[in-house]
Amino acid sequence: MTTVSGWAPAAAGQEGQEDLRALFGRSTALFAALTGPEHVVETANAAFLALAGDGARTGSPLGHLLPDLDPGVVAALDEAYRTGEPSTGRDVRVVLDAREASFDVTFEPRRDAAGTVTGIWVIGVETTHVRHAQLLMAEQRALLEQIARQAPLADVLDGMARSIEQLAPQEVLVSVLLADADGRHLRHGAAPSLPGFYNEAIDGIATGEGVGSCGTAAHRREPVVVTDIATDPFWDDFRDLAVRAGVAACWSTPILARDGALLGTFAMYHRTPRVPQEADLALARVFAGTAALAIERHRSEQAQRAAEAAAGAARDALARAVLAERQLRAEAERRATTAAQLADQMREAAVAQSATPHPEHCQLGGAQGCDEPAEVKIADSWGDSAWGCPVHVEEAILNVRSVFIASEELGGLSAYVHR
Q: What is the pLDDT, as a whole number, of residue 387?
């Protein structure tokens, strides 16, 4: 049998209040009048008799009705009967309707007209829900502290899953799946009590109608309850896997961002077919909200880190560009200096050529001079010319744009370049 949606009130504030009521419920009050040193149950309300199970009746000693009663409780009753002094017990654990419960109890001596103690009044108030509330608040606070200090998402989700498994009144196996950025697939997030092979098999499942409980819940953006995997069509493709994993029911709640975007799914598995109680659904809603907070915080941190990385890359690229620009500028300045020096040398060479038309040595060696033979004549657009060795002539041509080969023997610039 599959139940889809139908448990989410429209108003968020109202929903939160109803979830708290469902989780913490109403306290159960116990009352009994015991008589004599054996604490025979003279009268009692239905809740008290329920402690002893079906068919319990008055007229029997308390020890017969509740043979497993905490010895400390019996000792407190004996003490109150013997001394006539009232006493109280805190968080006394008993079994009520096949579940463990805790009570705060008061033992008040009963007296006859002469003031003699004849029995004990027992008045108790169930504190199970209060204790659960304290545990829930403690777990929620711990999870929120983890989120605030930016603990790894995997650690937060794993801790949350384990908390729910401990808080749930019956055995439950919790799984959290995370949605891909496109919302089309679900990835493993946390499932500390499910078999590894099962987690690997469903890692990456598609979101879609009829894709198990989680794929369908993610697709519909609403809770999906499968109470019996063996007969539900949503599990046709995963039934054998569920049998191997030992799960027979799965209730899945979508985890949604504040803007309605899909963040993942929160699932509660059971080993036997089971219909959820309102407290189960409220617990799922409460922790789905906590998971949403953790996942949104994680995604925000990822986006921030990505933005910071992009900004850092941009800064590095700018720094490289600035360095390259500086190097190009330095090279341009070096070339300009070299060109100016060569121009001066050519002017000096032109003056020298007036006396010696073809010098013996290269005239382009600068201050250090050059002893190589003067083989090639070059000139510039200003009419200055000089003779130089092939190495210095090539340097002049590369650094001074207006320089050209003036040697007729070499056939001009083209012949010099392709020689």
A: 85
User: Residue 60: which CATH number?
Assistant: 3.30.450.20
Domain-located, residue 311: no
Mean local confidence (pLDDT), 185-202: 94
Specify whether 196 is located in the same domain as 97: no
Residue where one domain finishes, among candidates 103, 126, 149: 126
Same domain, 373 and 390: yes
271 and 388 assigned to the same domain: no
Is the overall model pTM greater than 0.70, yes or no? no
Question: 313 lies in a domain?
Answer: no
Q: Which domain holds residue 228?
A: 2-9+131-304
- 272 plus 341 within the same structural domain: no
Count up the domains in the chain and report the number. Answer: 3
Residues 294 and 341 in one domain: no
β partners of residue 110:
119
State the Cα–Cα distance between residues 123 and 416, nearest whole angstrom.
118
pLDDT digit string, tens, across residues 265-321: 999 999 999 998 777 777 777 778 888 888 888 787 777 888 888 888 888 888 888
